[in-house]
Specification:
The protein is mainly α. It has 2 domains: 1-32; 34-130, Helix Hairpins (Orthogonal Bundle). The chain is built from 4 helices and 2 strands; from the N terminus they run E-E-H-H-H-H. It has a two-stranded antiparallel ribbon. Strand 1 and strand 2 (7-8) form a beta hairpin. Helix 2 runs antiparallel to helix 3. The chain is globular, with a radius of gyration of 19 Å. It starts with a strand and ends with a helix. The structure holds adenosine-5'-triphosphate.
């Protein structure tokens, strides 16, 4: 804890400062992570589609849970990748591989959950509209 030049490395003292740093974190995710941008864009498409299909409250809750879980898992994946790179840099390391592969596996699990939720909620609605 302390100061490095004019760059802060000590703990935030005010809620608003913590909040601004958290916002900066989300902006960094959007700017630097292609997969996060893809999931964010997909989430917006699903939300617009859900508004159009007028899904009910229960369906909204499951849909939002699935979307946020994917974004959260992508965030955790980025944290793991960044921390691993901080430790090992460009060097090959078996534990680095394990950490990165497991983090990517977490994103896959969340994505599978969101696909299942999507199929359960939207397939019957779409089939009903087609009939
Ligand atoms: N330092 C390392 N040591 C061992 N294996 C590594 C290391 N860095 C990356 N890898 C392996 O290479 C794969 C790709 O690494 P990378 O950091 O590009 O992850 P990615 O999942 O492709 O990234 P992104 O989520 O940004 O698309 C990892 O899943 C891991 O198997």
């Amino acid at each position: 804890m302390g100061l490095k030049g004019n760059k802060q490395v000590h703990k935030n003292k005010h809620f608003i400062v913590s909040f601004l740093h958290a916002l900066q974190g989300i902006i960094t995710l959007i700017k630097s992570e292609r997969n996060f941008r893809f999931h964010l864009f997909s989430s917006l498409v699903v939300i617009i589609f859900s508004v159009y299909l007028k899904i009910n409250l229960n369906e909204w809750l499951w849909t939002l849970l699935a979307l946020f879980l994917v974004l959260l898992s992508e965030t955790i994946n980025t944290i793991v990748e960044t921390v691993v790179d901080l430790f090992v840099g460009d060097k090959y390391n078996d534990l680095a591989k394990k950490a990165k592969d497991v983090a990517a596996g977490g994103v896959l699990i969340a994505s599978l959950f969101s696909i299942l939720v999507g199929l359960i909620i939207f397939l019957p609605i779409i089939l009903q509209k087609l009939n």
